[in-house]
Amino acid sequence: MNHGKKMIAPIIVSIIVIVWLLGNVIFYLLMNNVNTPSKIIYIVISIILSGVMLGVLISRIREIKGGEEDDLSKY
Description:
Blueprint (H helix, E strand, L loop, with lengths): L3 H27 L5 H30 L10
Helix pairs in contact: 1-2
């Protein structure tokens, strides 16, 4: 079956969130009036959240390909 149309929304949302998080990292790196430990914590958390978002996207794509297109139907 062709599940391409059902994968468009999760991919677009994931890309937007990841770009936003990494954009915040770049913005935070350019700020000079923030102390270094704060920068490191913010950057690490943003990178971890980007990785989690990528993992959720991969999981969702596998669900769609496996036929589980509607997660709420099983609850």
